Amino acid sequence: MPRDLELVLTVLAGARAGQERQGLPPSWRALPRAAAEAGIARGETYVVQRAGDTVGTLALEDTDPAVWPDSEAVGAVHLHRLAVDPRHQGQGIGSFAVDWAARTAAARRRSLLRLDAVAANTRLCTWYERLGFAAKGEVLLPGWVRASMRFEREVTGQADL
Fold first, then answer.
1. Angle at the Cα of 132 (from 131 to 135), degrees rounded to 5?
2. Contact, 61 vs 77, CB < 8 A?
3. Is the sign of the CA dihedral 79, 80, 81, 86 positive or negative?
4. How big is the chain by its Cα radius of gyration, in Å?
5. Three-state DSSP class for 158?
6. DSSP-based helix, strand, coil % in the chain, nearest 5
7. How far apart are CA 116 and CA 125, in angstroms?
8. What is the pTM of this model?
9. Distance from C-alpha of 16 to C-alpha of 27, rounded to nearest angstrom
10. pLDDT tens digits for 88-144?
11. From CA 161, how far away is CA 146, in angstroms rounded?
């Protein structure tokens, strides 16, 4: 909802700063306010809440041609900007959000959940692999100095939302 804009931006900024404090390469650029507003308006941005508090955010998009040139032709949902408030990390919220995204993709009759992560952030890449994602090669996005690792996970049969 538009009223969630500040919460989304706060969670994203906090998670990015947390990665930097840990010496990890940030998983995304600082998201401009206008881009966050547009994602909310398109219905692509979600908040993760626990006991009424916003503890995370994510975006689900139907295409991602910069990372996945075949995204128009393949039945996939693309997970972006998954972030958990640093005060709530390590509590299974990220895993819950990824599983929810997979079930949502399946409910949309898509066969794959796809994402990308900064390849140099091996801790994050290993976490995605533990969640059942298969690495599908690196891509260097325009304007980035670090390559991203592409990941995908089959979601067939997970539509029990």
1. 110
2. yes
3. positive
4. 15
5. coil
6. 35, 25, 40
7. 9
8. 0.85
9. 7
10. 888 999 999 999 999 999 999 999 999 998 898 888 899 999 999 999 999 988 877
11. 35
